[in-house]
Amino acid sequence: MNRTKCAHVRIGAPAEFFSCRALDVLDTENMRYEVTFGLTRELLEQLQKRDLDCVIATKQYDIPGIQYTTWESETFVIVGAAHMNVSLDVCEQTWLEQQRWISYGRELPIIRRIWKQHFHTRAVIEAAHIIPDLRGILKAVELGMGISVLPTYIAKEWIEAGRCQVLFPHVSCTNALYFAYREEDSEVFAIQNIKKSIAKLS
């Protein structure tokens, strides 16, 4: 392979999704990646300022000149330690309000979303621990430090191995991820190449 012909791509993404899911799509010999991890809003601002070439976004923001292509959807479930016992006749909302929660951020972003979708109200809970890394949260859950909401692609192997469990499987939600890029770059080789790889997922 002649490395001088590789397209240099500065891509921003959530660290966990990039490592666990996106690399399978981005694995191509004619691309050379420089990766920046961070929160979607901050990464999109860098994209707008031309500090990045593209972003894997967890949400669409209305930013002039930025276009989005759907990447895939992720499913979130409530995960607890394997030893936790939950009665079948328990009031889900009341029981969950009484638990220690582990959150990715102070605003409980994913937790509040699943709460509003299923209980139609704002979560009146506070995080016992804030760990801005999904893999760190999963380990904390296994250790019994609390419960959390995690994407199945992160928790699946640990659940199957009996290291943790899904609590109330029907209390779940889905979230779309997007490939974001500047509209003016829509015909650039690297952008087109990644979009073609994403299209193969459907």
From TrEMBL:
The keyword Transcription applies. The keyword Transcription regulation applies. Residues 9-192 form the LysR substrate-binding domain. Keywords: DNA-binding, Transcription, Transcription regulation. SUPFAM superfamilies: Periplasmic binding protein-like II. Belongs to the LysR transcriptional regulatory family. This is Substrate-binding domain-containing protein. It comes from Ectobacillus antri. The lineage of its organism: Bacteria, Bacillati, Bacillota, Bacilli, Bacillales.
